[in-house]
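Hey, I'm writing a tutorial for new members on how sequence and structure tokens pair up, and I'd like a real worked example in the thread rather than a made-up one. If someone can provide the structure for the chain below, I'll link this post from the tutorial.
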Amino acid sequence: MSEQATFETLGTTLVAAALTVSRSSKGWVDKAVAQLPDEKLHIALDANTNSIAVIMKHVAGNLLSRWTDFLETDGEKPWRDRDGEFVDSFTTRDELTNYWNAGWQQLFDTLAGLSSADLVKTITIRGEPHSVPLAIQRSLAHCGYHVGQIVMIARILAGDHWTKITIPRGGSASFNQRVWSSDSFQATANDETD
């Protein structure tokens, strides 16, 4: 395999991995908030924390700013109102969900449109230069931080009505047995070693 082909494969793999992780992160939040009535989305656990609605609004605002015209303009857009993202202004679940989905869709569309050649470019965030891979990792880390917050708050607010969205405590051995002994896993494992 040529050096160029290796570079292109690595670039495709990096972008595909970022898309997979991002879709998974969004999915965890979607499953978590689906378990709460509308009013609980607006409850802050105390005066120094943000509600789920506020965190979702902030994440979406960040994604819209960072990933709109990603390669051409600074990631901190002049139209972004970051301070306003921390004000609970959405009155319906649909408004919140539409904004949340718009932010993630901007990320998904931009990532899907990146070429291997784009990965060697430099972009700016608040005037600070970032390689494209660094900007991707920065976004993944930021989203992961807030996804964890949202899921934890949802878990607390759902109380006894919570349905697990990952492997339940004490369920790892059973999960591993089911997955690792499956025909699909065996085929994949065999394919990778051939």
